[in-house]
Structures are given as structure tokens and as C-alpha cells.
Amino acid sequence: MADPVLPQHPVSANAEVLSVEWLFEPLWPGTRVMATVERGEVSLTDELGQPVEGDIAEAADVLARAILAEEAIVDGVWSAQPFIGDGSRARVWADTLAEEGLEDQIADPLDTEKRRAFVAVDLVELDGEPLHDIPFQERRRLLEAVIDEGVQVRLSPVVKHPLAGWLMGWRANGFSHYLAKHMNSRYRPGERNDDSCTPSSHLSVDNTSEIDIVRPVELAEQPPRVPPLSRTAMHVLLAIGPEERHGYAIMREITRMTEGATRLGPGGAYTTIKRLLDDGLIEECDERPDPDLDDQRRRYYRLTGAGRAVAATEVRRLETLVRAARPWALETVE
Fold first, then answer.
1. Cβ–Cβ contacts within 10 Å for residue 123, how many?
2. β-sheet bridge partners, residue 44
3. Interatomic CA distance for residues 39 and 243, integer angstroms
4. Taking a C-beta distance cutoff of 8 angstroms, is the pair 155, 120 a contact?
5. Nearest to 139, CA basis, from 59, 212, 32
6. Residues in contact with 101: Cβ distance below 8 Å, sequence separation at least 6, in sequence order
7. In the structure, what pLDDT confidence band is assigned to residue 219 with cuts at 50, 70 and 90?
8. Above 60 in pLDDT, residue 334?
9. 102: Cβ contacts below 8 Å, ≥ 6 apart
10. Beta strands 117-126 and 153-155: pairing type?
11. 56 near 77, Cβ under 8 Å?
């Protein structure tokens, strides 16, 4: 049997990647796994080339059904991250604690979530042919063609500039870093490629299209990290919208826009408002209405640029879900 293929490793760097020739994806927390398929049988090795043990071994059965190729090597991560986003049990529990003012008791969802999924990030070989010298953009197209996504097998999203909205969305769903990959980068098994570039905290790569590295960038270099948002927090952001509203008006707007399905009380409203202020997603307005027209004790709030980006990302995500479910979900209800 051939020696196992080792995964390539990213170069650590705090950098601002501006070139349109780069692609971006979230950096998945978890265990790096190389999945090798030979005639329908899947073997798994870790980043050192050793056979995986324990719970990770269950990924082999899942991948045997999901990889649509007789022979392939897929680079991926065995991760809990796909199960801790919006609507997950961990998020619902965090929402409940937040509404009770118990944010300090919210555990890291990655520590409490027991489910795992294999997230495919690259295709290293296909039908016995190494793809090491194939540009990343083309490897990505091939990866999409051979992976049948499901609950336990996912494709890591890959996006282009403009990046700000994606970073906000990834941060809101618990990611702390992202990867920047040049669309023409080659795959270097077992290598870090740290000789290709000297990392810099303010690196612009507009004129360095030949850098063939995979570069992890800390999201903290962008606007401050935002913890995963609760459903209540999204309601508050959407209720404020493009306006400036005080707390009671926010509560009334939530009731109106949900057609009475959600009624937020003062305790939950002001706890959530404080959290959004701390996270930099809303800000208190300096200007006050005319004293003759309003109560001067009221505090008015508006969305920050970061708050608008987070709200827009969530709306786009929900629109995608609704569009996918509409052909059958409403018929089922009727």
C-alpha cells in the first residue's frame, strides 16, 4: 500500500488580503483528516499520516456513501462546528441563558456538542491521478462534483471579495479565523510553504499573484469578534432596522413583524440590547427628540456598520433556506 498523503498546512499571518485573485473560507476547528477511497473502501489518516482511532473512525462509513468516486483522496476536518450554528440545541440553550441575564454561564458549544461532521476542504487525488499541480480553483470544482453533501458530510464554503459580510456571518456563527487561498495555488502535501512570503500584519497582495500559500487570517484583525447571536438578538437588530428606536418601540416592532408570534418582555429586551451594545452591533444615539415630543429618559439605538452586515448576512442565509424549502414545506403544511 502506498504511503499516506499528508495534508498541507497554512502559514500563520495577520494580513489584509485585497486581491480579487484570492478565495476565502472559514477555518474549521476540529481534527484534520485525510480520507482515501479505493474501490469503495475508505481509510482515514491524521495529519501525521497515522490511522485515525476512536470516534473519528465512524467517518469512514459516512464518506463511503458520500464520495462519488472509485478512487480519491479528500482533505477535510472532523468537526462539531456544523452543528452549533443558528437553530442548534447549543444556540437555543445559549439564547435561553442570555435572555435570563446569565451570559457568564454559557459554555463553549464546541465543548458540549457531541455530533460531528466531515467538512471537505480540498481534493488531493482523483481516479489515481495526483492533483497537486492543479490550481485550487479547479480542484475546488472537482471536489464539488465528487462530494454528495448531507448531514455528516459538508463542503466548506469558498467565497470571493467583497468579504466583509461573510466575515461577519462566520464570526457570528462561532468561527475565529478564516483561510485565504490563491485561486492558482498548488497543493503541497506535508508542507507549510512558509518560504513563499514573509507574513505581515498589513500585507497587501495585489501584486503578488504567484504566492502559492494557504494563509490563515485571524478574524480579530477585522471588526471585534462577535459571539454567536441569539434569535432574540436577531429580532432586535431587525426591529431597529434603518431607524432609531427606543426599547419599548423595539419590543412593539418585534411583536408587529412576527405577527404576534414573538413578544419580548422588558427583561429580555434590555439584556439583549446591552449585549448588542457590548458587541458593537448597535450604538446609542447622541441626539434626543424634542422634549415636548418625547420622554427624555428614553434611550434610542441604531445599528452600527457591523450590525447591518450581521443582519444582512443572516437575512441572506434565511432567504436561501426558505427558497430551498418552499416547493415542498408549504404544501406539507396545507
1. 27
2. 35
3. 60
4. yes
5. 212
6. 267, 271
7. low
8. no
9. none
10. parallel
11. no
Whether the CA torsion 11, 79, 154, 178 is positive or negative: it is negative
Closest of 181, 165, 134 to residue 19, by C-alpha: 181
Q: What is the mean pLDDT of residues 208-212?
A: 29
For residues 142 and 52, the answer to whether their CB atoms sit within 8 Å is no
Rounded Cα–Cα distance for residues 164 and 307 (Å): 12
User: Rounded to the nearest 10 degrees, what angle do helices 231-240 and 266-278 cross at?
Assistant: 80
Cell, residue 333 = 403544511
Q: Which residues pair with 126 in a beta bridge?
A: 72, 129
Residue 13 has pLDDT above 70, yes or no: no
* The three grid cell numbers given for residue 302, joined into one nine-digit string: 441604531
Triad 199, 205, 206: Cα angle to 5°: 170
Higher-confidence residue of 58 and 301: namely: 301
Q: What average pLDDT does this structure show over 242-259?
A: 93
* Other Cβ atoms closer than 10 A to 146: 17
